[in-house]
Backbone:
């Protein structure tokens, strides 16, 4: 069984400030971890994913996340927030490849990021 | 890049009618597609796994007779909400896994269903 917990349903930052969105996971097998962004009235867009390679994963739009097994965390960061980063962000976990269940994602509750000028 | 097309993007229907939502992989073959549902201010919840040429696998609590899934080809899966009720109003989104590439997973843009 897998689960994802995103700490903080709303995060507000100033433009240019550090963005930190927290995600903790639980998985009985080595996980694949994802961060998705959802803009209003749109579907999900993949920001980045961890697939058991490098623990520090760089994604699109300047985002990155670090897989920390000891902390069961996969927090998303961006050094400098931009107004266009305002959206809802979802952390998700899937079982690792090798099984037909890959792609069967368990999502966190989502974090709405607000960026103030 | 790979694209998943989901249609319609928005549908309004009367209670008791059926609604079909299509999910197409445009430039790749998808042996497996997934259907999710998202209620307002909640996360996406997996409803079912759709496998080409076989029966879908439904998550616990999802009525298979109400949410009919057909994955008749490697590029198309459909979700039919039968006898829709207002409580079925939700955002439905599909994802497709590219055949042979376990790490290739793409999402459609979703369908907002409103049942009056």
Residues:
């Amino acid at each position: 069984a897998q689960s994802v917990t995103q700490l903080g349903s709303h995060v507000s930052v100033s433009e240019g400030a550090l963005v930190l969105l927290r995600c903790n996971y639980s998985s009985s097998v080595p996980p694949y971890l994802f961060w998705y962004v959802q803009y209003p009235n749109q579907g999900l867009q993949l920001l980045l994913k961890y697939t058991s390679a490098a623990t520090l994963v760089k994604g699109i739009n300047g985002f990155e996340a670090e897989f920390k097994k000891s902390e069961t965390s996969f927090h998303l960061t961006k050094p400098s927030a931009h107004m266009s980063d305002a959206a809802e962000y979802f952390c998700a976990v899937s079982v690792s490849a090798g099984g037909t269940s890959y792609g069967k994602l368990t999502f966190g509750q989502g974090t709405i990021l607000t960026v103030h000028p | 890049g790979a694209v998943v097309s989901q249609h319609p993007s928005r549908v309004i229907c009367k209670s008791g009618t059926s609604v079909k939502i299509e999910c197409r992989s445009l430039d790749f073959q998808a042996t497996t597609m997934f259907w999710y549902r998202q209620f307002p201010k909640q996360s996406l919840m997996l409803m079912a796994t759709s496998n080409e040429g076989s029966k879908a696998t439904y998550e616990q609590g999802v009525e298979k007779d109400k949410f009919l899934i057909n994955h008749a080809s490697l590029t198309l899966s459909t979700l039919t909400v039968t006898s829709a009720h207002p409580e079925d109003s939700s955002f439905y989104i599909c994802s497709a896994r590219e055949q042979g590439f376990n790490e290739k997973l793409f999402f459609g843009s979703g369908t907002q269903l409103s049942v009056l």
